[in-house]
Amino acid sequence: MRIAACIALLTAVASTALAAEIPQAERRSGYSFMSPDTKAMQDEDTANPGMLFVLDGEALWQRKAGTANKACADCHSDARISMKGVAAHYPAFEKALGKPVDLEARINLCRTNHQQASPFAYESHELLALTAYVAQQSRGMPIATGDDPKLAPFVEKGHALFMQRQGQLNLGCTNCHDDSWDKKLAGSAITQGQPTGYPLYRLEWQSLGSLQRRLRACITGIRAQAYDYGKPELVELELYLMTRARGMPVETPAVRP
Amino acid sequence: MPSALINVPKKARRGDVIEIKTLMSHIMETGYRHTASGDVVPRDIITSFTCRFNGTEVFRADLYPAIAANPFITFFTTVTESGKFEFEWIGDKGFSETAQASITVE
To answer: Is the separation of the CB atoms in B88 and B50 below 8 Å?
Structure first.
């Protein structure tokens, strides 16, 4: 009886130890897992293909759109000043909707409400380019998502989703990205899943892609049904991941293998 | 809206070996992929890249479907005088883009 209790206690201790969050000092960006070649590609702006999207985003920022015939620059003027540090706070709470929105959704809200234009499709070149341009203005600044107390219940939902096992492989995000980030999967580093550089240029995609695209790819990887783009579950996951990466510098546009 | 990123040193000494880096925005569609309904996605790649210095060709490359999107081409050359590098990318569907960069040789 006493042995059984001991085993139960030990298992409980082991499982809590496994499920623990990664301590601040051990947090590592996906960058630190990359090869020197891929790091060099991210480090130099003329070699980083994500910068091509940033250039396009800069042009889009100035372009008038919609029936209001306004450009982003007409309200926000110089993005280098007005958008500095903004991306480091996203996803943020949107009062009108009563829920958090990510940077892509914020740009599309601006388009529909203020420019009176049709929203960009998820993963369209335009949306990725504008998001990358806005997020790049926060490069090097520490991630500060989650200051708003109204976000707390949504962070909690995202956290629950992060811990929840699902799919045919019956894995939760935590099983790889908290428990096994120092190991490899099919020769590739597993990484901690810190979303420091989105939208980022993934060599496998040969394109820039959003955090939602990355999450959907991961969910498909554990053979679960991926949530559609823009679904609250994905935004809550994004939100939790960004609060989990608080204090880490923004790298947008990052490069990943 | 194709855009290019060029990295040429602004200054060099006569006879220096310099590295030139170019990055061109292009999807580089191989022509070997099919859509869900079975149609071939037509090939759309850059086929040729040329670099001229003061009108003289110093580097040329032919590109093929195996080259990844947004081709990144770097090469070395020596400089003996100040002048202008002109870059030209030519590809399928009438793709044609140019860019230039100047260098001062001391």
So the answer is: yes
Kindly identify which residue of chain B lies nearest to residue A204, measuring between CA atoms.
B68
Looking at residue A104, its amino acid is E
- Tell me, yes or no, whether A226 lies in a domain: yes
Residues A215, A102: Cα–Cα separation, whole Å: 14
Q: Give A-chain residues touching B27 at CB under 8 angstroms.
A: 206
Show residues of chain B in contact with A59, CB under 8 Å. 1
Q: What ipTM was assigned to the predicted interfaces of this complex? A: 0.88
Model pTM score: 0.89
* pLDDT tens track for A104-115: 999 999 999 999
Strands B96-105 and B11-12 turn out to be: parallel
| Six token digits for residue A43 | 């480090």
Q: Give the pLDDT band of residue A2 (cuts 50, 70, 90).
A: low
Q: Which residues of B touch A (CB under 8 A)?
A: 1, 3, 5-7, 21, 23, 25, 27-28, 68-70, 72
Number of domains in chain A: 1
Catalytic annotation on A176?
no
Question: Which domains are present in chain B?
Answer: 4-105 (2.60.40.10)
The residue in chain B having the minimum alpha-carbon distance to the alpha carbon of residue A54 is B3
Q: How far apart are CA A160 and CA B55, in angstroms?
A: 63
Give residue-wise pLDDT tens across range A110-151. 999 999 999 999 999 999 999 999 999 999 999 999 999 999
Minimum distance, in Å, between the CA of residue A171 and any CA atom of chain B:
29
Q: Which domain holds residue A57?
A: 25-257
CATH of the domain at A200: 1.10.760.10
